[in-house]
Amino acid sequence: MTEAFASRYGPWGVVLGAGQGIGRAFGVELAARGLRVLLVDLDANLLAEAAEAVREAGAPEVRTAQLDLAAPAIAESLEAATGQLEVGLAVYTAMVSLVGPFLDEELARHKLALGVGCSGVLAASHVFGRRFRDQGRGGLILTSSLAGFQGTGWVAGYSACKAFDLALAEALWWELAPEGVDVLALCPGGTHTPGMLAHDPKVDENALMTPEAVAQEALDALGQQHLCIPGEQNRAVRAALEKLPRQQLIEVMGENTRKQFVD
User: Using one digit for the tens of pLDDT, what is the confidence trace for 109-151?
Assistant: First the structure.
C-alpha cells in the first residue's frame, strides 16, 4: 500500500500550513507513506519542530520553506520553492481562524484571513494543478470545514473562506479527473489543534478528533471520493443537518458555534 501511494503521489508531497495541527499531521503521515516532504509555513520555529517530527516518522528527505501564503506573489514563491522537485501531492491546510462577531474584528484581520484562506488556496491549486495535469498524475487536497457548507455565524469570514475552498475542490475534482489528477475536499469538524484550543472552546476535548486521524482518513479517501468528512460522528451530524431547511440550518449552526466560544 505504501509503495502504491508513493508511486502515485510521490516522490514529493508539499504541505502548506504545515507548522502545527492538521498540517503537521499530514507531514508525518506522508512520511509514513514513503514520501519526501516539503513543509511550508510562515513561522520558522514551528517549521523546525514539524520538520523534526516528519524526519522521525521516516521521511526519506524533508525540506522547509518559510512563505507567507497571503502574499500577492505567493504563486511565484511556490514555483521557486518547488520548481526543482518532482511533486505528486499538495495539501493545503493553512488558515487564519477568526472567532466572534464579524464586525468586532478589524477589517485588516479579515483581509489577512481571506488571503490565507482563499487567495493562497487559489494560487496553490493553479500552480500544482497545472503541474499535475502536465505530468498526468497527482493529488490535491484542499481543507474546508463543516462550517463551509453554509454561512456560519460567529465564524462568518472563516465559513465564507471554507465555502470557497469546498466549491473550488469539488469543481477541480470534476475538471482534473480526466487528466489523471485526484482532488479531495476535506471537511473536518472539531479537531484537537492549537488553533482550535486557542479560542477556549466550551467542548469536551476528548470529543474532538485528533489531527492524525483527520490526515489518515483524508489520505485514505484521496482518489476514492471527492469529499471527506472525517469521523463517523461528524458524518452523522452533517447528514442530519443537511435535511434542515436552509434558514434553520444557518440558525442552528450559528447558535451552536456561538455557544462553543461564549460562557
Answer: 999 999 999 999 999 999 999 999 999 999 999 999 999 999 9
Which H or E run includes 168? Answer: helix 156-176
Number of structural domains the chain divides into: 1
Angle at the Cα of 89 (from 228 to 91), degrees rounded to 5? 50
**CB 62 within 8 Å of CB 15:** no
Place of cell 485588516: 108
Question: What is the value of pTM for the model shown?
Answer: 0.96
User: Domain containing 221: what range?
Assistant: 2-261
Grid coordinates standing for 66?
Answer: 518559510
**Position 44: which residue type?**
A
Question: For residue 71, what is the domain's CATH number?
Answer: 3.40.50.720
DSSP 225: B
CA nearest neighbour of 26 among 228, 166, 218, 235: 218
